[in-house]
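User: Hi! I have a protein structure encoded as tokens and I'd like to know what sequence might fold into it. I'm fairly new to this, so please keep things simple.
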């Protein structure tokens, strides 16, 4: 018995249009599915080859691990910035205190993006220059 792929080739040789072949293939796949054949069995009969996903998964795992390392580095740097603040001094300024609490909340809660990290870092660096008394002395 010819495979679905063989039948498609014979329809192509006979001059059927792509639309007609596509419609026939969809109907045939539906019939086979309703008869209990799996999607993988139907795809194999249509000539589709199973894709080896191992290299793709390995590549994504590498990307995820790089992202995780970068994430941990960013958070440890941000934690150091937050911990370098003298809370009693920051509380003296409502504006600074609100910002500090917001940063701390994001750090402990839903997290931050790289953009926000850069913005926070820049703000803390500006504070260190303009309000050095708000920071603990570096050892």
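Assistant: Happy to help. Inverse folding works backwards from shape to sequence: for each of the 139 positions I chose a residue that suits the local structure. Here it is:
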């Amino acid at each position: 018995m010819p495979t679905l792929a063989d039948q498609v080739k014979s329809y192509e040789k006979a001059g059927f249009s792509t639309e007609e072949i596509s419609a026939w293939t969809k109907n045939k796949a539906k019939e086979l599915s309703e008869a209990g054949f799996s999607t993988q069995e139907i795809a194999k009969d249509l000539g589709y080859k199973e894709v080896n996903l191992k290299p793709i998964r390995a590549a994504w795992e590498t990307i995820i691990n790089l992202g995780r390392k970068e994430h941990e580095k960013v958070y440890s740097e941000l934690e150091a910035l937050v911990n370098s603040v003298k809370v009693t001094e920051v509380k003296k300024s409502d504006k600074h205190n609100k910002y500090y609490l917001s940063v701390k909340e994001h750090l402990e809660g839903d997290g931050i993006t790289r953009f926000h990290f850069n913005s926070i870092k820049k703000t803390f660096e500006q504070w260190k220059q303009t309000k050095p008394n708000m920071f603990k002395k570096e050892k």
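A useful reference point when you look it over: The two ends are 81 Å apart (CA to CA). Feel free to ask if any position seems puzzling.
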